[in-house]
Amino acid sequence: MGNLVLEALCKRYGSSTAVERVDLEVKQGEMVALLGPSGCGKTTTLRMVAGFIPPSEGRILIGGQDVTRRPAHARDTGMVFQSYALFPHMTVGQNVAFGLEMRKVGRAERDGRVMEALRLVRLDHLADRLPRQLSGGQQQRVALARALVVNPAVFLLDEPLSNLDAKLRGEVRMEIRALQQRLGLTTLIVTHDQEEALTMADRLVVMERGRVRQVGTAEELYENPTDPFVAGFVGRCNLIEGRLEAPGGFRAASGALLHCDVEAAEARPDAALLALRPERIGLQPDAEGGGRVAAVTYLGAQTEYLVEQDGTSLLIIRPTPTLADPLRRLAVGDAVTLSWEAAAARLLPAAT
Amino acid sequence: MAALVLPAGLLVLLLLVAPMLLLARISLNQFSPTEMMVEATTAANYLRAIQDPYYQQVMATTLGVALGCTLLTLALGFPAAYWLARMQSRWKSLATILVLFPLLVGNVVRAAGWMALLGNEGAINAALKGLGLITTSLPLLYNTGSVVTGIVAVVLPYMILTLASVIESIPRQAEEAASNLGAKPFTVFRRVVLPLALPGVAAGSVLVFILCMNTYASAVLLGGPQFKMMAPAVYDQFVRGNNWPFGAALAFILLGVTLLLTVVGSTLLGRKYKTA
Question: How far A86 CA lies from chain B's nearest CA (Å)?
Fold first, then answer.
């Protein structure tokens, strides 16, 4: 085991750049998620770590050793593929034993470790089956056991849950996280599903167009996005273009004046965007109010409102009001007043 | 739906089954130098073909050439098929056409090309002489080597395309998983690619083996008068010897041996695939 360090990792294909100077450390026993839309370079980064793609520039260190030029078979990473990539002609047991065979582990020890790994994923009773005789979730767990049995220095997961149905996904997610924590595995997971990333990883790396946009815990990214892309990608967000009008006022391009934190404005005088989480906005029916309800969407536990104020439309999400609440009778065209804490309005630089 | 199969079914019946039955009947007849053929029901033609050391030798040569060519084609074709199957660029369809390209030229024309290349006054000998490396021509033509060269060049596209279609169905990620687990490239090939490609190896080898067993043009044109394989021997009996019964018997022996080895070979490979 050890940590994983990426130093200024780049991958270019001709004139196009897939990954642009990624710096990252995954600490011993930590789980880090690479999160981003498809084509953001997250999978390319993971495949460079595994050794399937040679980096154009930069270094990869596992446990302090430079493995940048090492072939995939000499890297000691354990990878779980999106498609599981089980060997269809081998039984479950043979699949799991493969890595141990390659490491010249003796027969007796091998059998023991294979069963141990299969017990870990609760599949020891299916060791003699062929992969095609298993369900998707079971195949996924075989792939986990196969990668874990060799005690890899770094555990790599490439969209491991995307081929599972929603119910199973939740279960396997918890199972992977529990295993990872119990075994203290240094883990890099790639996903485009932010819920997956938020629930599993210690830290998240949000990538877009080959670049790292922000690194942080789920809370840091949600509460303090420093980048407009992150604000829009992690959770939902109202992003309003405009500029600061001192003190504590943000003039939207449409003309609306929105209030924000004075100190935050001083810290970022060049702010070009105001980010406001929809659930941080308060809503009151008010005949004198400046906002007009443009849409109401009832979603059970929550209700979404779209409110137009001075030419700016804002999404607001509130817990669905009780029947007695006057808010419950809010309809399209009604006048409302909006309110939020100054600190809830995040100021961001222009999108790049 | 069944009616749609009728035209093809009739055609097969007419053009394949009927001549075969006719040939089978002829093979049981008796040869007569004056009357050509006398109605009979005798196994004499078969017995003669099996017992005659000359035809034993012809069969041995045919089997040797066919097996050798099949193995050689497999060895040459696998890397090419793998490369073709794993090709992802827009050149893939062009590469496939290039593999098919030799099939546009008939066997006879191609053999003539080899003759022009390998003959005593052929391009290779002429070039070597011109360079002063040799003074007398190398015997490149009319031997086993030239026949094998000619046959392999004919059957290679069949092997490559058959293998490539099977290799394409092997998920790339299975190979990546193997190397991720510590398998060196050759081990990945031996433990993952080859076992999963066995159905293609079986199909390609059967196809190529049958083609090789029935080689005619390459054997005649590149082997010369001394080199005898079964298909030309059958032709000789029919056309030169006018001995139709014996020619028919030889044809059926060739068919039987080819069929037997094809079944045995693919069964063995099939069994290996199941236990692998």
Answer: 6
Which residues on chain B are in Cβ contact (under 8 Å) with A50? 176, 180
| B4 domain-assigned | no
B173 contacts A102? CB cut-off 8 A: no
Q: Does B94 reach chain A within 8 Å, measured CB to CB?
A: no
Domain enclosing residue B177, as ranges: 62-227
H or E element at residue B192: none
Nearest Cβ partner for A73 among B173, B183, B195: B183
Query: B74 lies in a domain?
Result: yes
CATH of residue B156: 1.10.3720.10
CA A279, chain centre distance (Å)? 21
pLDDT reading at A20 higher than 50: yes
End-to-end alpha carbon distance in chain A: 38
Judged on CB neighbours under 10 Å (0-12, 13-18, 19+), A230 is: buried
Classify residue B165: in a domain, yes or no.
yes
Query: Is the CB of A79 less than 8 angstroms away from the CB of B180?
Result: yes
Domains (range + CATH), chain A = 4-223 (3.40.50.300), 236-348 (2.40.50.140)
Nearest-Cα distance to chain B for A149, in Å, is 10
Is the predicted pLDDT of residue B136 greater than 80, yes or no? yes
**In chain A, which residue's Cα lies nearest the Cα of B176?**
A52
Collapse the DSSP code of A256 into the 3-class scheme (helix H, G, I; strand E, B; otherwise coil) and give the result.
coil
In a domain, B196, yes or no: yes
Contacts of B183 in chain A (CB under 8 A): 73, 98, 102
What is the per-residue pLDDT across A236-289, written as a single tens digit (0 to 9) for each? 899 998 888 867 788 888 888 888 887 777 778 788 899 999 999 999 898 888
* pLDDT, tens digit (0-9, with 9 covering 90-100), for A32-50: 999 999 889 999 999 999 9
Q: Do B177 and A77 touch (CB under 8 A)?
A: no
